[in-house]
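Table 4 source record.
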Amino acid sequence: MPPPATITTIAQLETLYGHPNQASTVKVAARLTAHYRALIAASPFAALATAGPEGLDCSPRGDLPGFVRVHDDSTLLMPDRRGNNRIDTLRNIVRDPRVALLFLIPGVGTTLRVNGRAHITTDPELLATFAVEGKPPRSVIVIAIDDVYFQCARAIVRSELWNPARHVDPQNLPTPGQILAGMSENCVGGDEYDRAWPERARKTMW
């Protein structure tokens, strides 16, 4: 039995929150509009959510602004740049095509959401069009859009995400090397990992 005050039905939710206003529903489109294309072109970062048999995954994706390419009004192309080779996102897409994207634009409160279905391609000609410094991605994620809409700026405003005065000093947080050392009884990570990471990242960015 759920704990007291737990919401368990859609009816309870709708009673608590009411219904969305017109501005919350009219913004939803099944295809890209000129305005939504402009937001994608300005974005250097997106969070990509997928689902698979083992559960959910949400992966950060970043590159130069416009790194997610508009192929047509109902299709997006996202290069899969070098990472940690866990390929959690790609494993999920192979088994469950449902994806969701949240685009962020530095300094802008409005975000953009895309829900759709994806597949992975290794077409050599397409990969070559995404090459940076002569290095193409190993695959491209092709996303068929189901719906797209902007999200209002309240979350960004509340968090003061783009306010430099609110930036956190990295020295006040554990480093990746410290985290790895703590998780591996010092078999992996440590100070040397942190020292080597900037150069390793520079050499393996693409």
